Amino acid sequence: MTGIRVKKKVSEAFTLEADFSLGAGITALIGPAGAGKTLLLEMVAGLATPDEGRILLDDAILFDGQARVDLPLVRRGCGYVSQTDSLFPHRTLRQNLEFAARRFPRLERHRRVAEAIEQFTLAESAALRPAEADAAERLRCSIARALIGGPGLLLADDAGIDGALFELIRTHFRGPILMAARDLDLACTAASEMTLFDHGHIVQRGTPRTVLDQPATVEAARLAGYENLWQGTIATLDRAANLSRLECGGFALTVPYLPGHLRGDRVWVAIRAAAVRPRRADSPPAPNVIPAELVRVAGRAQSVRLEFAGPIVAELSLSQFAALGDNKSWLVEFPGESLHMIP
Amino acid sequence: MTADWSPLWLGLRVALMVSVLALVVAPWPAWWLARRNWPAVTLLARFLASVPAVIIAALAVPAFTWPVAVAAGLVRAVPYALAACRTAFQSLNPGYVKAARMTGASDLRIFWTLALPLDGPAALRAAADVFAETMLEVAVALWIGGRLSAPPAGAILLTALAGNALALWLRRETGTPVERQGGR
User: Is beta strand A69-70 parallel, antiparallel or unpaired with respect to A78-81?
Assistant: First the structure.
């Protein structure tokens, strides 16, 4: 198995503590800047030392705090693609690859470099220095350099690798990949496992769909991109009618019966901006429709974001917004099926 | 009356030897110190780099010969070059060092293949500075001893200025690491 259990105290305020296993596929480590993703990856790579814990790769112990095992970097069998451009600027892309393959005998080294150049389509840029190559070539070369030693695990630290590039990596590298990212879409496209990570701790784990659709905590919902999060008090619980009524500050919501709760309990309600439906004030009445005051309209590349007092955030497609654009007074609807309750 | 040019030759010999020796001696310990935070060592280096050791030696040692001057010059030059190289090595992109370490490169290998090629010009700049300052120091030491006439003094001053100019030129040509690496 491949598992990571580490603890490291960085400062009085920040302690990183993580315990999880890695599947054979791509695991996305999602969290904001400063969450500790890079540090976690560096501890696995051997660039940083945990205070305690155990790191296993394919049942081989890379690090064990108690047994005082701390394998040197090159024997760990980890490839590492860093967040920033780290190709040596005074060497050509080919020389960068040769540097990484230096520990192999000459013929083997040439074979590996040639193979890497072919696999990552670097033939045209192999003689260029990083500053002369374009960003995509540099990234492919960084990946090729990380893979040239034949690692058992690839660590990719928010390096800007996109879905297509992950597919390319997958055709040449079958081992597990642990990638740190901030992009939820990329995690959904590429990863088979997702770990939400914040303040040095794992917030939630699971398949990307499960994590995104069923956030277990408020932090998870925030990291999973739920823009609307309100705390509400349960005002009514009606099991027979399968209804609960939540008082959320300025408005009330009707949701399905919440088992295991009492009246007066506080729960969190989460809904994605894209699921909120703004309407004209003269539209027919419906459940969970409340009047709202529009505060700001922000255009985006493919959508329009409406911010209402509350705060309530809604996201409309351009055509939806065009149909509503001249509206002055607004209602917003929260469709029941899109509301997520978080205890 | 022909001028006595021996002070110029002494200055040149001492300054060249001191700067070459500083260039050879300083970079490796500087690289080693660059990844450690030892304020005491840094402070000591700063202090030594500001001591006019050649002048002190000229006043204290009765037989002020060139080996004495070189030894005294090194007292100041090595810490100066050490501090300058350390600062330059500290600015080396940590991403490069991590990438090199991931491939199993040793400290010495990283020094040779990354630190020196990328930040080596800092050592050259420091050597040019050392050359100019040592020239001036020798001149002052000889002048205090009453062994310096105007013509060699002028020549020494010009040579020191040339050293300074070389340091400035190197600074402009090799630039800061940020300017050097941000080539896109």
Answer: unpaired
The answer to whether A223 touches A198, Cβ cutoff 8 Å, is yes
Tell me whether residues B93 and A86 touch, CB distance under 8 A.
yes
pLDDT of B33-59, one tens digit each?
888 888 888 888 888 888 888 888 888
Give the pair of three-digit tokens for residue B142.
Answer: 């000889």
For chain A, the residues whose C-beta falls within 8 A of a C-beta of chain B are 42, 45, 47, 72-74, 78-80, 82, 84-90, 99-103, 131, 145-146, 149
Token pair 């400062």: residue? A11
Domains of chain B: 25-174 (1.10.3720.10)
d(CA B184, CA A128): 13
pLDDT tens digits for B70-99?
A: 999 999 999 999 998 998 898 888 899 999
Q: Give per-residue pLDDT as tens, A111-128.
A: 999 999 999 999 999 999
Partners of B181 on chain A (C-beta within 8 Å) are 89
Say if CB B23 and CB B124 are below 8 A apart. Answer: yes
CA distance A322 to B69: 84
| ipTM score of complex | 0.80
Contacts of A71 in chain B (CB under 8 A): none
SS3 call for B136: helix
Write down the residue that tokens 């389509």 correspond to: A121
Please tell me the CATH code under which domain A228-233+260-342 is placed: 2.40.50
Query: How confident is the model over A299-324, as a mean pLDDT?
Result: 88
Give the best residue of A43, A49, A71, A82 to mutate against chain B (max B CB count within 10 A). A82
Cβ contacts of B102 on chain A, cutoff 8 Å: 45, 47, 73-74, 78-80, 100, 146
CA distance A11 to A25: 33
Smallest Cβ distance to B101: which of A47, A88, A103?
A47
B176: confidence class by pLDDT, cuts 50, 70, 90: low
Q: What is the mean pLDDT of chain A?
A: 90
Please give the pLDDT value at position B1: 54
Domain residue limits, chain A: 2-223, 228-233+260-342
Say which of A73, A88, A101 has its CB closest to residue B101.
Answer: A73
CA-to-CA distance for A286 and A334, rounded, in angstroms?
A: 10
* Dist. CA B142–CA B147, nearest whole Å: 5
Q: Does domain A2-223 have CATH number 2.160.10.10?
A: no
